[in-house]
Design a protein that fits this description.
The protein is an alpha+beta fold. Helices cover 44% and strands 12% of the residues. It has helices at 12-23, 26-29, 45-52, 56-63, 72-81, 86-96, 114-121, 142-147, 161-167, 169-172, 178-195, 200-212, 214-221, 270-281, and strands spanning 128-131, 137-140, 231-237, 241-252, 255-264. A five-stranded antiparallel sheet has the order 2-1-5-4-3.
Amino acid sequence: MRHHGDAPGRNELGDFLRARRAALDPRRTGVPDDGRLRRVPGLRREELAQLAHVSPDYIVRLEQGRTRRVSRPVLDALADALRLAPDERSYLFAVADVTQAAPARKPIEQRVDPRLLRLLDGMPGIPALVLGRRQDVLAWNSAAVALLTDFGALPPRERNLFRLTFLDEAFRSLYADWPRVARECVAVLRMEAGRNPEDPVLTALVGELSVRDPDFRTWWGSHQVRGPRELTKTYRHPVVGTLTLDVQQFSVDAEPDQRLITYTAPPGSPAEEALHFLLHWSDSGSRRVGDARAVD
């Protein structure tokens, strides 16, 4: 039996296929109604097999984890049959390759380039963070402190957006629509877990969140996935009230595992006015960096 908090990658391929099959409306696939009563929603195994041009027994073995040897054409056929979105398709290929992955190596310490730190300090009017693996907060500027939280006051282990979103009451209360944001966090975490199935810190994080938050347990089991993207978030800030900001993510060429995150408001909008007021009001002395070496 699979328990919440088990290591990502234990049978991610089978679990994902089952979840996506159950979530797919058969009418979207053109499967004719044969008049049989459906005991559960979604596609039957034999229907998925027919659409992907494989045997039903092969689908059973994949879902039960009895085989993981899947060729690229078969993965493409399964992804097409399940109507997977690009992020879901990428995740399918990532977890199908789990058994062929190289032995786990000790993660390299997460360090932020001094030039990137200078960039953060040089944009005082824009809240900005540098995120590393598992959405660990490696660096921040004073504007991010004013908007989100004083990361410098947190132990390095707790400087993690997944952990803060689910386990920190003050942080989660910032979101006007916390359930939507939290579900997106789970989808991003699920994607990262599929790409890094042997990461012990990530495994421990999933286990802790599963034990401590019932919503996380439920959403983790749904196997929704997505990668980082631009989005809009609405905050309920204790100082300036409601403001809606654009959240953009930029890759860091020198560090593939790191991303620069910025929070901006449309010019002339009420949110821009509120953000300006907040940044002028804040007299935070926190400039930027946490001890990234303590994160791993």
